[in-house]
Design goal:
With 318 residues, the protein is of the alpha/beta class. It has 2 domains: 3-116 and 241-316, FAD/NAD(P)-binding domain; 133-237, FAD/NAD(P)-binding domain (3-Layer(bba) Sandwich). The protein contains 6 helices and 17 strands. The strands form 4 sheets. Strands 1, 2, 3, 4, 5, 6 and 17 form a 7-stranded mixed sheet that branches. Strand 9, helix 4 and strand 10 (171-175) form a beta-alpha-beta unit. The protein is elongated. The chain starts with a strand and ends in a 9-residue tail after the last helix.
Length: 318
């Protein structure tokens, strides 16, 4: 058991966390970024990012996040790969109990916990996870060369990933519970023009079916409850996201119905000294560019908070 104190702790190493770390480290705030897995967040599994300013020809998610991490490290951002077992965010000192038994304390914190893919929770989904059920086309697309697969969802992510999967699959059936897509018009135009993609409207997936070799078909329910079986060897679920908030003290942090955190325009939560940035926030649009913006604002706000409430604490930070 050991304890270390920092002026600022950032939880999460995606675009919001790394940008916050860059700004904080550059401001000479003694900062620690804690990330449970690889620094980069969900962007790490995005094959191509075409709308991040400054990369006119696009950039892979891995390369973009690697550049962000190196940029933050240039200013001395400290990082620790560790899981957090418990948060204690009330009071002037914020405390984090790590899974390895270590205790970290800080004067301020920026929560960049992010979010993860939502699941349908239907029969067969869990049983065939990794054996035909996937939530990442970039990760698993190459396994489905010349096969017939399905994509569930109608938003930007679903259509972007369906288009990516055309590089590998022989046929992609997009299954959407509504009669029209929610994706942006330019993505819709590309998808409708792609001969490998077909659409099944006003339909929900009721079960994933298969055997020892993996997924073999989907049980679908259409208008009026009419059921049909769609033969596929793989299904990619893109039906939204849910916040990584399981360990957060939601009883004292204001949040929306889905559990995403409310903040003001300075990224401050309901708890003094606690800020939030990126996909964990309650907001309409979740893009890499506005996650980075959130992180910058949160770091600047945290710096202002530290100047006001802890003007002489840098000497006790380790």
């Amino acid at each position: 058991m050991s304890a270390s104190h920092y002026q600022l702790v950032i939880v999460g190493g995606g675009p919001a966390g790394l940008t916050a770390g860059l700004y904080a480290a550059r401001a000479r705030i003694n900062t620690l970024l804690i990330e449970k897995t690889a620094v980069s967040g969900q962007v790490l599994v995005t094959e191509r990012v075409d709308n991040y300013p400054g990369f006119a020809d696009g950039v892979s998610g891995y390369e973009l996040m690697e550049k962000m991490a190196l940029h933050a490290e240039r200013f001395g951002l400290q990082k620790k790969l560790a899981g957090i077992a418990e948060f204690a965010l009330e009071g002037p000192e914020k405390r984090f109990s790590l899974e390895n038994g270590e205790t970290i304390t800080a004067d301020a914190v920026i929560l960049c916990n992010g979010a993860r893919p939502r699941k349908l929770n239907i029969p067969g989904e869990r049983e065939f996870a990794g054996r035909g059920v996937s939530y990442c086309a970039t990760c698993d697309g190459p396994f489905y060369r010349n096969q017939e697969i399905a994509v569930v969802g109608g938003g930007n992510t679903a259509i972007q990933e369906a288009l990516h999967l055309t590089k590998f699959a022989q046929k992609i059936t997009v299954i959407h519970r509504r009669s029209e897509l929610r994706a942006t018009k330019i993505l819709q135009e590309r998808a409708f023009a792609e001969e490998k993609i077909e659409f099944v409207w006003n339909t929900q997936v009721k079960a994933v079916q298969g055997g020892k070799s993996g997924v073999e078909s989907l049980l679908l329910s259409g208008e009026g409850g009419a059921e049909q079986v769609l033969p596929v060897t793989g299904v990619f679920m893109f039906i939204g996201i849910q916040p990584n908030n399981e360990l957060l003290p939601l009883e004292v942090l204001e949040h929306d119905q889905a559990g995403f955190l409310h903040t003001d325009e300075a990224m401050a939560t309901a708890l003094p000294g606690v800020f939030a940035a990126g996909d964990i926030r309650s907001k309409k649009f979740r893009q890499i560019v506005n996650a980075a913006s959130d992180g910058a604002v949160a770091a600047l706000s945290a710096g202002h908070y530290l100047e006001q409430h802890f003007p002489n604490t840098s000497d006790k930070s380790s």
